[in-house]
């Protein structure tokens, strides 16, 4: 696999809670390679979401460096961070985060609206994405008129519509049943692999780590170990 797209160097994130300081991420270094499916795995409270939010530019580290394609995320101001997220990253959240008053189609077009894509192209691309996630028949449905799995499909379509270099997913199947979970993981990893996109998935479910090229096991804000997955279909020795 190719070169690093994200390099995390000795990063910490401390939260002050009254007299106490919580080290959510505590001196962590990691490189994520272009095109890899990287799974952040660990118990609740181990710092997975905090690390994801730091890499995605949603939060600022207390110290350390986060370098995305030679750009220092930790040095960016709010405007630069917003632009960075718009251009390079997509998000899938556990709770879908769809806008309730918008249709599936409108939700999927949102990232294109922010980028100033003309309306007709927007709608065409959104329809293509809805097809890719198997929801062309639900384009005019609002989130409340869809199942959890369908809502997550819409959010996956939204995450991928800009062809971002990296897609971040924080417990994307946390609210879904087992069958839907596997459908959703197949969909996300399939889209990412097809377009050579990098995928960073947070989960506490060991079953899901089978989708990963690498599993970064976290504990107390640090990396406990990294497991490399044997790729099926490889050459025999
Ligand atoms: P995980 O996603 O692995 O469950 P988190 O990254 O959410 O873990 O949290 C790691 C630690 O940091 C936990 O102890 C949590 O309570 C703490 N933490 C996370 N976010 C905040 C915050 N905004 N303020 C204070 N403490 C936080
Ligand atoms: Mg979390």
TrEMBL record:
PROSITE patterns: ABC_TRANSPORTER_1 (PS00211), ABC_TRANSPORTER_2 (PS50893). GO terms for molecular function: ATP binding; ATP hydrolysis activity; transmembrane transporter activity. CDD domains: ABC_MJ0796_LolCDE_FtsE. The keyword Nucleus does not apply. It comes from the Bacteria. Residues 6-237 form the ABC transporter domain. GO terms for cellular component: membrane protein complex; plasma membrane. Keywords: ATP-binding, Nucleotide-binding, Transport. The keyword Hydrolase does not apply. It holds the Pfam family ABC_tran. PANTHER family: IMPORT ATP-BINDING PROTEIN. This is Putative ABC transport system ATP-binding protein.
């Amino acid at each position: 696999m190719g070169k690093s797209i994200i390099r995390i160097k000795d990063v910490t994130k401390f939260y002050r809670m009254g007299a106490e300081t919580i080290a959510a991420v505590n001196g962590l270094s990691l490189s994520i390679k272009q095109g890899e499916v990287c799974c952040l795995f660990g118990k609740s409270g181990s710092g997975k979401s905090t690390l994801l939010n730091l890499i995605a530019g949603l939060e600022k580290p207390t110290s350390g460096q986060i370098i995305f394609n030679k750009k220092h995320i930790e040095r960016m101001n709010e405007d630069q961070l917003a632009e960075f997220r718009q251009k390079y990253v997509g998000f899938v959240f556990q709770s879908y985060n769809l806008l309730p008053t918008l249709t599936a189609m409108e939700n999927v077009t949102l990232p294109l609206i922010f980028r100033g894509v003309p309306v007709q192209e927007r709608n065409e691309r959104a329809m293509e994405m809805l097809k890719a996630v198997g929801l062309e028949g639900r384009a005019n449905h609002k989130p409340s008129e869809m199942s959890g799995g369908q809502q997550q499909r819409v959010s996956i379509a939204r995450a991928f519509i800009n062809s971002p270099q990296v897609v971040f997913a924080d417990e994307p199947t946390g609210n879904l049943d087992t069958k839907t979970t596997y459908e959703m993981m197949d969909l996300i990893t399939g889209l990412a692999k097809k377009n050579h996109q990098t995928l960073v998935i947070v989960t506490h479910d060991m079953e899901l780590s089978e989708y990963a090229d690498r599993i970064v096991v976290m504990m107390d804000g640090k990396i406990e170990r990294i497991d490399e997955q044997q790729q099926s279909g490889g050459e025999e020795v």
